[in-house]
Design brief:
This protein has five helices and 18 strands. The protein is mainly β. Strands 10-12-14-17-18-16 form a six-stranded mixed β-sheet, with no helix packed on it. A three-stranded antiparallel β-sheet has the order 1-2-3, with no helix packed on it. The chain is elongated, with a radius of gyration of 59 Å. The model has no long low-confidence stretch (mean pLDDT about 80).
Amino acid sequence: MGTGYVRNDTANNIANGNVINADDLDGEFNAVEAAFNNSSGHTHDGTTSEGAAIEVIGPSQDIVATASLLRPKTNNAVDLGTTSLKYKDLHMQGTAAIATNATVGGTLGVTGATTLSDTLAVTGNQTNTGNLTVNGNTTLGNAASDTVTVTADVASNLIPSADNTYDLGASGSEWKDLYIDGTANIDTGSIDTANVGTLAVSGNASVSGNLTVLGSLNASISGTAVTADTLTTARTITIAGITAGAANFDGSANITITTSGLTLGGTAVTSTGAELNILDGVTASTAELNLLDGVTASTAEINYIDGVTSAIQTQLDAKVDETHTGDVDITGELVVQSYNETYQSVSSSSGTTTINCETGNVFASTLSENTTFTFTNPPANNTAYGFSLKLIQDASASGYTVTWPTTIDWPSKTIPSLTSTANGIDQFVFYTHDGGSNWYGFTAGQNLG
């Protein structure tokens, strides 16, 4: 049979036509019984008379066993144990690959490396005796009732992932003591009680409670001190000069200084305060000031002579100079014996010639290329302005041309032609009264010589 059963009828007594004795049958049945004995029967270990190895078990051959593996017949179909019937210990030399969740009800002890490609759910305690390295994001706890206990020293910086976003502690859940050897960079500090050895503040400091300084304090206080101790040594405050007075001050109370009156050169001044305020900065003597008793002139009227230190006519003569820079507005007629106008020579640059109306009234230009004229900075609307322009051809009789501004209106709407001979001179006159929106141009003379 090859299953642990060995044939006993070696003489082949049990055969067709022979007389079969009971001993022959008993021997065969005893051999079959021995082969299926639960302790000494055949082993199915693949050796001679022990039967072939069993490679599949189960009602549908659900488990397959080979020399190198024990596997289910189909994927994700057979459990190993049940919720009520569990295996005892699991001993594995190689890798445990778990496709979905792994739930450990007790303690998970891992002595080697563990690689998890999915979620590890641990309902009990987890103890790592070696180093723990977490490369991804880490979440500790899912409620405020969960706690984290750190008994090891921190060997790295603690840096938040976003600036000015997360708090360290909270109202009602505050840390106790803070020990820092380096610098605490705090944008805004709110401290109930501070015991500071050396405090250096480069900006503003606001203290809403009590401030006790046991050593020296160098500070500038711009507000009002509600309470203060007296000075160790009282100081005398003295007013000297045109009035006199003195008082002692130690900080315990306000002081009042009574002056002895205003004197100049030993003579009492009798003018009122209002009268004297009008003369702020005046260097007159006491006797001269007393002449102003009862003066009713206003401050503005007194300021008319501000800076006058001698005869008024002499001062006015010195103020009126022969030259003046800037605009002069005169209401009424201006009558002069003679007046002069500013002459300016202008030249072309990169095919452009500019007439700046603020620099003169008489202009001249010697042509060196074909050029376009531009008139700039005319006076504002309703102010008339005019200028003359002398154009001179070059000595080589090049016959250079001029392009005039399109805002010029010419007589008969005809732009004059220029003299093209060597050193030929043409004279033109222009004026405007609407801020340069329109210019009126006239030929004063051509081919002058």
